[in-house]
Amino acid sequence: EGFSPDWGAWNTIGYKELYHHLKGDMTLPEAVEDIKTNTRHLAKYQQNWMGKLDYIHIHQMDELNVDVLREELQDGG
Description:
Elements: H1 15-23, H2 28-51, H3 66-74
Helix pairs in contact: 1-2
């Protein structure tokens, strides 16, 4: 209450969806689903962006042995 929809924070995930829920534009389950979807889209965008940077190395911890990762990091890889 008291905040304009032009407020910068409304552009972040969570705020804009809940704003629409509070306005009555969507149900709470719909807002939660939109938050989940938008979070996945942001994560994918960040992975793609970081994947283009040579000095960023993304490791999938569920697929990589911690000891192997430790050795790679110590070797500078």
